[in-house]
Structure formats: structure tokens, C-alpha cells
# Entry
Amino acid sequence: MAFFGYHMPSYTFAGAHTDELFDHTVELARSAESAGFELVTVMDHFYQITPIGPEEEPMLEAYTTLGALARETTRVRLATLVTGVTYRNPALVAKMVTTLDVISKGRAICGIGAAWNESEHLGYGFEFPPIGERMDRLDEALTILKLMFTQDRPSFTGTHYRIDRALNNPRPLQAGGPPILVGGGGEKRTLRLVARHADMSHWFGPLADIRRKSEILDRYCEEEGRDPATITRTMGSPVVLVENEGQAKSVMERMPPERRVMFQPATPEQAAEILQDYIDVGIQGFTFGNPTLRTPEEFDRARRLIRAVKPI
# Structure
């Protein structure tokens, strides 16, 4: 059965003061958990990103937020969607995700990708190498993450990163460590890294693109000697939930133009049929963003969709 994730890329809440931002975030995470979502994710960005809003909008640091949410929720898995490989040393990421796993009693997922937002790299003074080097860094980082999740004192020497008998104590609570999710659907390198290292992947796009990526991932798995069934394939939801056609128009008009092409407005019942086509080509999880799921009515529509796709 498919599972559902609730993604929080926005901390802009109407009328909320800074000291109220996290309270609103907790309310949303708990509402998602109550509605039947099984995963709550946050962005690992320091500026807001253009498709969501102006970069000056408030942005909470990801791992501090996840650690606090671990104490405010009880069932949902917790992850970044996703950490940029350029933001932190991968050994430090392993320590942070392990700590999240301990705090949450085994609910952490380790999300990571190659990073892309040059603006915040410039602002924070992070290196922003060309994409080829970022992919090389991601390959090495994924190796280090798995080593530190599974071995007591691992060592590794790469071109960009190294560890020397690195200690990661306490150990993760999950056997084998938190699942590793690689974000991105690049068909030449990212999907090969998924086949080589990841437990989960996360993509965006229309059905034809998703079908092609799934077929490519299958081929890479064969080349890497990997069972493709061991990789959970997830994607950003291609639908935005509405109650009727009249509401669909107003909801789409509120979206930035560049985001409208990514979504199809649908009632929960219509959405269940649309998502089935993606399930049929191998998708096992869908994430919905908080810009369109913030009110009791909107969470009720999500609950109806989840029940339609995953009947009790």
C-alpha cells in the first residue's frame, strides 16, 4: 500500500509572530499525524526557495526543528526532504540523524541530495562547486553515512571527505540505521546513486516521466546487483486536494504560476484514482506540502484520500 508524507516547506503563517512559528509548525505536524500521514518532512534550506515564496520568508533550521518535532509527535517518521550535501560534513549528518533516531525512538529517515540553491550558498559562505563535483560529493557522503550507521569505528578516504575510525555512539535505534532517502530524479547520475546506496528515492513529475525514471532505476539496480524491490519510490503529489470545481479555480489561482503546472486539482475521490496510475508504475509514497494543507477542512480532505487509497 502507498504511504503519505506531509512536507513543510513554509513557516509563513498569517499573523504569527516569531515566537509563535514553532507552535504553528507543531499544530500542523500533529494534524498530519492525526489525519493518517506516516511521514513529516521539512526542507533543509536557510532561505525560502523561489517556487514557495520570497527568500526573505522565515526559515527554521531543519535538524533543530526535527528534534523538537520528535518530542511533539508519536508515530510519524521524520526527515529532511532533503539535506544538501554541501551544507554539512557527512559524518556530522550521520551523527545528527542518529541523534534524531534516538530522540524519536527509531523514527528518523536520512534525506540527502546534491543541493542546488546557489543563493544561500553565497549568503552563508558555503562552497557551491559544479554539479559534477556535487554528485561526486554525494556519492562519498552516502558511503560515509552507511558506514557510520552500520559499523562501530569505520574509516574511509575519498577525494572530498574522509573519516578515521569515526565513533557514532549512541548507535541508531533502527537496525542497519535510519533508511537513506536520496532526493532527485537525475537520470544519469542521481538514479544510479539511488541504486548503489539508497533505501528510498523522491521524484517529481508527470506520469510519463515517473514511469521512465522507474524503468531507468530498475536497469541501474540490475547493473549494481541490487534488488529493485528494496528501494521505496516516492514523489511529490501530482494533485492538490479541493472540494469541488469552483474551489479548484481559486486554489490554483493562489499558486505561483510556475507551480500550477505541477498539480492537478482533484477531490479526494478523484485524487485516489489519479494516484493509482502512479502506484501502478511503482510509486509507493506521496508527499503533500503544507501550503495547501493548513486548515481542518484541508486535513479532512487528506484524511478522506488516505482512507480511499488505504482502506481500513
Q: What stands out?
A: The radius of gyration is 19 Å. The chain has a mean pLDDT of 94. The chain is about 40% helix and 15% strand. Residues 234 and 285 are 4 Å apart (CA to CA).
